[in-house]
Design brief:
Strand order of the largest sheet: 1-2-3-4
Number of strands: 4
Order of helices and strands: HHHHHEEEE
Largest sheet: 4 strands, antiparallel
Radius of gyration: 13 Å
Shape: globular
Helix content: 25-40%
């Protein structure tokens, strides 16, 4: 595992999911900042504190979280790559219990997301 990814994940080990404070979108944005030094302006993503507000912010950019993430990422020059090309530290989307979740590639095969009880792989 990349040391930058390991350092990034450490403080999140027991962090729980809370909309607008520690959710998968904010987790992924923090990973972009800390691992890749990519900063997405707050006005590009919006602000939310509840599930309903997060849905509204997402829908302002697309139909769902995945589409919204791709749209915002493209505004700062990030590009979509297919699964085989993902690298350690890249942001990825995963299906977690039937829901789209954004996370960070921990290694060549594992996506780490922020779940209700902390980090999930």
């Amino acid at each position: 595992m990349n040391s930058a990814v390991q350092s990034f994940l450490l403080p999140y080990k027991r962090q729980t999911f809370r909309y607008g404070r520690s959710d998968c979108a904010l987790f992924s944005l923090a990973a972009l900042r800390e691992i890749w030094d990519v900063h997405i302006p707050p006005e590009e993503i919006g602000k939310w504190a509840t599930k309903k507000q997060a849905l509204t912010a997402t829908q302002a950019h697309g139909e769902g979280l995945y589409e919204a993430a791709c749209k915002v990422a493209s505004k700062v020059g990030l590009v979509y790559v297919y699964t085989p090309l993902l690298q350690c530290g890249d942001i990825a989307a995963a299906n977690v219990s039937g829901r789209v979740c954004l996370g960070v590639m921990e290694n060549a095969s594992d996506i780490v997301c922020l779940g209700a009880m902390g980090l999930i792989r």
